[in-house]
Amino acid sequence: MAAAKATPDIATLGSDIAALKRDVAVMMRQLTGNPSNGAGTVRQAATRLGDEATALYEQIAAAGTNSHRALAHRVEERPATSLLIAFALGLLGGHLLLR
After folding, report:
1. Which conformational region is residue 33 in: left (phi greater than 0), alpha (psi within -120 to 50 degrees), or beta?
2. Which of 23, 33, 49, 58 maximizes the CB count within 10 A of its CB?
3. Residue 30's closest CA among 41, 22, 45?
4. CA distance 56 to 64
5. How far is C-alpha 3 from the geometric centre of its chain's CA atoms?
6. How far apart are CA 49 and CA 56, in angstroms?
């Protein structure tokens, strides 16, 4: 009797494994971007994220360059004031580091 009961359980287990294989195959096609189903969300998202990161880096680099130019221009316009500000910041930084 135990052998008769085990046979349907094994058959059920076999069909469950086959269904699992099909599900995994479908998920892998979706994740790898199989062009036949129009998916590829992971690759598309990674590409989009990379493009956005590159654009953000370029914006930050441009802003840094602009800030550097503006600061250099102010130092050239008022060298004495810039020197006094740098001296004051150095004193303040030295005082804070000694604590």
Report:
1. left
2. 33
3. 41
4. 12
5. 55
6. 10
Chain-centre distance of CA 11, in angstroms?
A: 45
Write the pLDDT tens digit of every residue in 64-97: 899 999 989 989 999 999 999 999 999 999 999 9
C-alpha count within 13 angstroms, C-beta hemisphere, residue 28 = 6
Q: How confident is the model at residue 1 (pLDDT cuts 50, 70, 90)?
A: very low
SS3 39: coil
- How many angstroms separate the CA atoms of 78 and 68, rounded? 15
- Give the end-to-end CA distance of the chain in Å, rounded to a whole number: 85
Among candidate residues 97, 19, 46, the one with its CA nearest the CA of residue 11: 19
Alpha carbons 2 and 4: distance in angstroms, whole number:
5
Look at the block and give the residue holding tokens 């102010």: 74
